Amino acid sequence: MKRGLLFLLWSAMLVGLFAGQPAHAADQRAAGGMIAWPHDEMVRALGIFIPGRMAALDVPGASVAIVADGKIVYSASFGTADRRKGNPVTPQTLFEAGELGETLAAYGALSLTRDKLLFLDAPLSRDLTTPWLSRESDDRLVTLRQVLTHTSGLPDNVAHPSRRTGFDPGERFSHSGVGFLYLQHVMETIEKKPFDAVMRARVFAPLGMGSSTYEDRSSSGVEARGYVPLRFPVAVFYLPFLAAFLGALGIVWAVTRFTMRQGRIETADLLWPLMLALVFAIGLVWYGLGFANAVFMIVVAVGYAFGLVALGAFIFYLIYVVGFVRSREGVIARGRSRSPEMALAFAFLSAFVVSLAFFDWPLAVPRFALLDDARPNAANSFRTDAEDMGRFMIEVLDGKEIGARLHDRMVSERVVVDPVFSWGLGIGIRKDQQGETLWTRGSSLGFESLMVIDPAQRTGVVVLTNSRSGSELAQQIVRNVLGRDGVWALP
């Protein structure tokens, strides 16, 4: 009886914490997050919480590591790496970790600084025989510090990288993936070897990160498959399509109304707005995501449209031609036609409403061997597992490899983004009432990840997922483990 009562009290405290409400004030373990609990209780609680939240958010797979006092105290894998094949996530499963790779690249660059091969405030071009940036003025001004703090002025689009700054280097914070492509080129030039080999020698091998890589390992079968909900490609394609169509339609209306003195827009007048909107949406998706990802997004969006048209036509047939929802017979029996506009509008509105039920349907992001750019990329091709990232978090806490001086400068030399967020030399800094946390999050199509470190408590959490919905899962896990409120994401 006593054991049952204790279990009920423990369960009530657990539910309160998971719901985002404060647990019992008398329980000091809950006040400090799960990390302050006895180890077996934390393991037991996470074993309940994580699968439950994964099911609620429809996240296929996740891998989690927790660090405390200089060692990995928890590491676990959940769910499936590939739903079609049924492969489970294992400790060896690699997840695409997006911008987490920038923080690792920053650490590699700082190791070059330690060895006096790079300098924080010298132009990165000092070791280049051929300029990488488009303008000579940018070539003279962009420094390692500016790239690491995202103040270089270089753009963020790595699918179609522009080698021109958009504002004066050092002027303000603006996340730049292209800045890390520039840094990658410089590091390869200095070390005279490919980028992945540079990182393996300077970061992965010294820290024991045996699985991490910037190379594509999808053919080896160790990589997880990414998933996005149907609503994502539909929104990404059709929101710009709709905006462009309405803009073009407005121009057509103005021309017909004020130039041609035509009182209404004819059906034929819709052709040009539709064609312009289609070209605009395709071009925007291609520019933002690159060719391979754009093919996937556009095929899904067009397939959704065809499905919508087919379903709408079927509903129209039932309610107008057959007269399925009418008390009298339809057109087939009556032998005459009535105005179909209202029935057509109702049919397609009904088809759209029905389609909303499938918006959370997860779609596997395909791998196009002939279309994908498989070259290592410091900004978005990083692959890793949770235990490797746990080893990196230990290094960020201790700085044994990088050295005490650079370890301290990584956080102390920062640029302010807003009152809550700053950015150090390759890592984000978030301030709240409990102090500061170091963080970075990664995002690529079908993958979301988050790493948060609390230097004062010497703890850290990393969450890797293979779903776009994984971002919220990662935030919830970090909040519960560290006992902190808020969101680790730039405003």
Concise summary:
The protein is of the alpha+beta class and 491 residues long. The protein is 46% helix and 14% strand. It has a domain at 95-225 and 373-482: DD-peptidase/beta-lactamase superfamily (Beta-lactamase, 3-Layer(aba) Sandwich).
Please tell me about this protein's structure:
By secondary structure, the protein is an alpha+beta fold. It has a domain at 95-225 and 373-482: Beta-lactamase (3-Layer(aba) Sandwich). It is 46% helix and 14% strand. It contains 16 helices and 13 strands. The chain has helices at 2-18, 28-31, 39-57, 100-114, 136-141, 144-148, 177-191, 195-207, 231-258, 271-289, 291-322, 331-334, 341-356, 386-398, 404-412, 470-482, and strands spanning 61-68, 71-82, 87-88, 95-96, 227-229, 362-364, 383-384, 415-416, 421-423, 428-432, 435-444, 447-454, 459-465. The strands form 3 sheets. A 9-stranded antiparallel sheet has the order 3-2-1-13-12-11-10-9-8, with helices on both faces. Mean pLDDT is 88; it is low at 1-30 and 331-336.
Reported for the largest beta sheet, the result is: 9 strands, antiparallel
Identify the CATH class of the domain at 95-225 and 373-482.
Alpha Beta
The name of the CATH superfamily of the domain at 95-225 and 373-482 reads DD-peptidase/beta-lactamase superfamily
Sheet with most strands: strand arrangement = 3-2-1-13-12-11-10-9-8
- Termini gap: 50 Å
N to C succession of SSEs: HHHEEEEHHHHHEHHHHHEEHHEEEEEEH
Tell me which CATH architecture of the domain at 95-225 and 373-482 applies here: 3-Layer(aba) Sandwich
Q: Mean pLDDT, rounded to whole units?
A: 88
Q: Provide a count of the helices.
A: 16
Structural class: alpha+beta
Total strand count, please?
13
Low-confidence stretches: 1-30, 331-336
Radius of gyration: 27 Å
Percent of residues in helices comes to 40-55%
| Shape assignment | globular
Strand fraction equals 5-15%
The CATH topology label of the domain at 95-225 and 373-482 is Beta-lactamase
